[in-house]
């Protein structure tokens, strides 16, 4: 029995061992790629870049038996119109051992590719025109048993004849002029005609085949010479040829009457800015969304990898890249999917790692063993690609996709008017929701002038190097805006020159005319291409120039001179409680003592009999002085020798003890903070404080957004402040931030300034200014451009990208805090919190009270001594000096003075009395 168990176990363990050994290696698989020699190089570049950035090296492979997979492309460039050349290329690729083939087929070679791939069961994925073989098969009217089986072809370019039909219905077109230049265009035309027929939508179609853009333009001219009516022209030409035809037609008066539809998917790649203000309408589909995060990341990585300056992704390149992703994810799916057949899994991994070559000339035909498995896996791939959601049906065609409908119309420019969904159909946006697509203009190859303003830390003149090197160009400046300009220029792709504004103004509209000064005026007059400075976005400025998204958020703040640190007072130990509380405590102390004295007088339980030398007497311990002493002892939490005996007296004592417990606990809890933290007393804490007083003047920079804010404000506090500022002499307005800061440091002056500038100035020597209160408003700095500039939207995209990557936050931290030469408030606070020792000024008051109390006690003792001596001198009928000497001798030696004439014997209790002598003589004198 044990023998049989071993025999059964061995075949099971061996595959596990092999798979485990495979997991220590990398898997290398070959991918065939066939490109047309006339094809744009961007298609090949995008395909290879996506293949090199294989997602197979992600953590998902940890679930499978392979550490990583390296996909190597075996590339052939051929004439895709030559069937023999294409067939030979496929055979060569199979002999090199590949798992699948990518190519941009043509209609001339489509049958050859289908024949080879079906025969050898080799998966083929194309980015060219999609062909619905299932529709072709169904049109043959054959029995289902005789229909061709599903082939090995897939198409990442979607079928969109139905989308064309929906758009034709939307425009209610009844006549079409279809111009094409290739067999692929003819195939798309046939698909459109079939779709029109299937949906019973009658349209008269005029078909024209041309060879190039010039012939297409000539055809349109001939059409215009016959009739002057507007036409619906469908241009099925390469994107560049479409652009050329439109540019030539734009010069013709009759050409502006037509509505042109770009049948391809590259309308967003055409330079349509020349048509923004004409009468020509141009429409088309867009499949590559510019705001797609996947597209942005791909363009950024692809641009860096190719050392290029790519700004747009051609849709053919996007389709090729998505095809590469389909291959990658399908292999990943095969590798990580669980399998109960370990032998098959082992063979699959061996085949993928080193694909066995296939010879086209072998008879009988040898097929690719895992072609079916790979094809099935490719059909099941789903992901968000560069061309939207990528999913396939059982026939290798795209499904569940969408395309934007773009249109250029008179005086609006390019705009997205709707979206077509493969499942839902065409959805047109309401007219009031349609917004022009900015940034369609091309960036000219010229140096841009960047206007700015010299104000720290935004833009400053760089100090000359120690070696005496002369700085030139943009190297003369440094600061936040200088660095931001470089980042934006690198992202957008343009050269620039920084030029400080001539009049040192930000930009304000003239009171007597509509002219603007400052940086805004330079943009309006086209003296500068963009303004990168602390330029606030306002409604007035937005009417005359364009702004990007804010690169910095801020508000108006108040700057004052930093007050000197308040030295602790002699009686700073009293700070934990207000003076009102201290007075209430004193009155409570006196009141409790008086109440205790009264209740003790009226309560019979406080009276008791005591024996004295002259006989028993009824006494009450709570005299007024003893009551004060009892209350003081309880307040100091020390107690005394007497305690109340009556219930009423104990009630008074109990509530007083409770009162003192809370007061002392609260005092102790706050004492440490008040004695260890040195606080600064600011004369102004808010805008309301400024408005309520006139001693401290306040103002702002003349001709700026802050001034406009107060001028237009309807808030009562700000209106009152504006009235004060406009009537104060001398003027409280300054020409620049630097002059405003100087007034803060030398006068009783509060400066209303942007919070970011306020924060920076507080970090530079002499570190004597500070920000108080919260911001008065909320606004932002934006990059300004002239109206209609081709830079505006690209700059906005750059600002958003820099913000998302936290580059703007790092830049602000660098110029505001890392270069600071002043101690940070947080570090000061931490230092204060870490300090546990007190200094003499903090507790000097309690020493003064101690010394004062001791001095008062000595004075009182002296007064008592002299008073008792005087009484004793009168009683004994002796001189005052003798009485003083007698008392002094008693105080020093503790022995009373003996009289020569008589001797009095007194008990011990009397000898240790306060004065040392008995008031009465109860014994015989000798």
Automatic annotation (TrEMBL):
Membrane-spanning ranges: 579-599, 655-677, 845-867
Pfam families membership: ANF_receptor, Lig_chan, Lig_chan-Glu_bd
GO BP term (any one): cell surface receptor signaling pathway
Keyword match Glycosyltransferase: no
Any GO CC annotation of this UniProt entry: postsynaptic membrane
A molecular function (GO) term: transmitter-gated monoatomic ion channel activity
Ionotropic glutamate receptor C-terminal domain span: 447-818
Descriptive protein name: Glutamate receptor 1
Signal peptide annotation: 1-23
Site (Interaction with the cone snail toxin Con-ikot-ikot): 711
Bilayer topology: Multi-pass membrane protein
Residues holding L-glutamate: 534, 536, 541, 705-706, 754
PANTHER family: IONOTROPIC GLUTAMATE RECEPTOR
Listed CDD domains: PBP1_iGluR_AMPA
Residues annotated as site: Crucial to convey clamshell closure to channel opening: 684
Cystine pairs: 767-822
Keywords assigned: Cell membrane, Disulfide bond, Glycoprotein, Ion channel, Ion transport, Ligand-gated ion channel, Membrane, Postsynaptic cell membrane, Receptor, Signal, Synapse, Transmembrane, Transmembrane helix, Transport
Ionotropic glutamate receptor L-glutamate and glycine-binding domain: residues covered: 457-525
Gene3D superfamilies: 1.10.287.70, 3.40.50.2300, Periplasmic binding protein-like II
Compartments in which it is found: Postsynaptic cell membrane
InterPro entries in UniProt: ANF_lig-bd_rcpt, Glu/Gly-bd, Iono_Glu_rcpt_met, Ionotropic_Glu_rcpt, Iontro_rcpt_C, Peripla_BP_I
């Amino acid at each position: 029995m044990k023998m049989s168990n071993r025999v059964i176990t061995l075949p099971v363990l061996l595959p596990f061992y092999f798979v485990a050994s495979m997991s220590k290696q990398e898997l290398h698989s070959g991918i065939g790629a066939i490109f047309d020699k006339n094809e744009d190089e961007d298609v090949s570049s995008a395909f290879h870049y996506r293949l090199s950035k294989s997602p197979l090296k992600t953590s998902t492979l940890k679930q499978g038996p392979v550490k990583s997979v390296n996909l190597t492309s075996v590339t052939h460039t051929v004439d895709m119109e030559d069937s023999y050349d294409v067939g030979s290329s496929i055979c060569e690729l199979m002999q090199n051992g590949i798992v699948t083939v990518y190519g941009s087929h043509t209609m001339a070679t489509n049958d050859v590719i289908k024949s080879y791939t079906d025969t050898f069961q080799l998966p083929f994925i194309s980015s060219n025109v999609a062909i619905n073989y299932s529709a072709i098969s169904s049109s043959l009217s054959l029995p289902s048993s005789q229909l061709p089986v599903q082939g090995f072809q897939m198409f990442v370019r979607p079928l969109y004849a139905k989308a064309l039909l929906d758009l034709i219905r939307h425009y209610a077109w009844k006549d079409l002029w279809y111009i094409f230049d290739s067999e692929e265009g003819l195939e798309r035309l046939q698909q459109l005609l079939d779709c029109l027929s299937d949906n019973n939508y009658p349209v008269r179609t005029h078909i024209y085949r041309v060879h190039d853009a010039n012939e297409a333009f000539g055809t349109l001219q001939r059409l215009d010479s016959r009739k002057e009516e507007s036409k619906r022209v469908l241009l099925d030409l390469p994107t560049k040829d479409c652009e050329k035809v439109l540019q030539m037609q734009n010069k013709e008066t009759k050409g502006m009457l037509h509505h042109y539809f770009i049948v391809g998917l590259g309308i967003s790649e055409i330079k349509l800015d020349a048509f923004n203000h004409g009468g020509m309408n141009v429409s088309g589909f867009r499949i590559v969304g510019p705001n797609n995060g996947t597209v942005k990341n791909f363009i950024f990585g692809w641009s860096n990898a190719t050392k290029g300056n790519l700004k747009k992704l051609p849709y053919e390149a996007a389709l090729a890249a998505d095809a590469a992703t389909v291959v990658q994810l399908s292999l990943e799916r095969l590798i990580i999917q669980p399998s109960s057949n370990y032998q098959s899994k082992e063979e699959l991994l061996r085949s993928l790692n080193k694909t066995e070559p296939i010879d086209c000339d072998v008879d009988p035909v040898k097929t690719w063993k895992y072609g079916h498995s790979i094809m099935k896996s490719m059909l099941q791939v789903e992901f968000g690609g560069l061309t939207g959601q990528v999913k396939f049906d059982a026939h290798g065609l795209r499904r569940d996709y969408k395309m934007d409908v773009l249109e250029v119309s008179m005086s609006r420019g390019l705009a997205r008017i709707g979206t077509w969904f493969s499942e839902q159909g065409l959805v047109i946006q309401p007219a009031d929701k349609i917004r022009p697509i900015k940034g369609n203009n091309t960036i000219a190859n010229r140096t841009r002038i960047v206007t700015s303003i010299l104000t720290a830390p935004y833009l400053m003149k760089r100090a000359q190097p120690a070696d005496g090197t002369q700085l030139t160009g943009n190297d003369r400046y440094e600061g936040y805006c200088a660095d931001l300009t470089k980042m934006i220029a690198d992202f957008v792709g343009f050269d620039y020159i920084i030029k400080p504004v001539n009049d040192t103004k930000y930009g304000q509209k003239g009171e007597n005319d509509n002219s603007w000064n400052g940086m805004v005026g330079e943009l309006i007059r086209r003296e500068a291409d963009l303004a990168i400075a602390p330029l606030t976005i306002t409604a007035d400025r937005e009417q005359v120039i364009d702004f990007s998204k804010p690169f910095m958020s801020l508000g108006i703040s108040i700057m004052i001179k930093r007050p000197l640190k308040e030295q602790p007072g002699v009686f700073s130990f009293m700070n934990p409680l207000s003076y009102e509380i201290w007075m209430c405590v004193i009155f409570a102390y006196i009141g409790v003592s008086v109440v205790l004295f009264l209740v003790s007088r009226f309560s019979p339980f406080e009276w008791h009999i005591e024996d004295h030398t002259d006989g028993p007497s009824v006494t009450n311990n709570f005299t007024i002085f003893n009551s004060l002493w009892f209350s003081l002892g309880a307040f100091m939490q020390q107690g005394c020798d007497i305690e109340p005996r009556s219930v009423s007296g104990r009630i008074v004592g109990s509530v007083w003890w409770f009162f003192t417990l809370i007061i002392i606990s609260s005092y102790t809890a706050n004492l440490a903070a008040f004695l260890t933290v040195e606080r600064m007393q600011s004369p102004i804490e808010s805008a309301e404080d400024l408005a309520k007083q006139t001693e401290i003047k306040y103002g702002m920079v003349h001709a700026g957004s802050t001034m406009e804010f107060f001028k237009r404000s309807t808030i009562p506090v700000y209106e009152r402040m504006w009235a004060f500022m406009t009537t104060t002499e001398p003027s409280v307005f300054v020409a620049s931030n630097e002059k405003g800061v100087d007034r803060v440091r030398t006068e009783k002056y509060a400066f209303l300034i942007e919070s970011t500038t306020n924060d920076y100035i507080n970090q530079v020597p002499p570190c004597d200014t500070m920000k108080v209160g919260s911001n008065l408003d909320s606004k932002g700095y934006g990059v300004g451009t002239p109206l209609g500039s081709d830079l505006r939207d690209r700059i906005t995209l750059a600002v958003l990208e820099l913000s998302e990557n936290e580059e703007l936050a790092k830049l602000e931290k660098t110029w505001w805090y890392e270069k600071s030469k002043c101690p940070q408030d947080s570090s000061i606070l931490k230092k204060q919190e870490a300090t546990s020792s007190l200094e003499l000024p903090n507790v000097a008051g309690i020493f003064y009270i101690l010394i004062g109390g001791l001095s008062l006690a000595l004075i009182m003792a002296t007064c008592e001594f002299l008073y008792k001596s005087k009484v004793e001198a009168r009683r004994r009928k002796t001189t005052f000096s003798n009485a003083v000497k007698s008392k002094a001798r008693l105080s020093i030696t503790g022995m009373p003075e003996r009289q020569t004439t008589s001797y009095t014997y007194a008990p011990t209790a009397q000898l240790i009395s306060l004065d040392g002598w008995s008031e009465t003589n109860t014994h015989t004198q000798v």
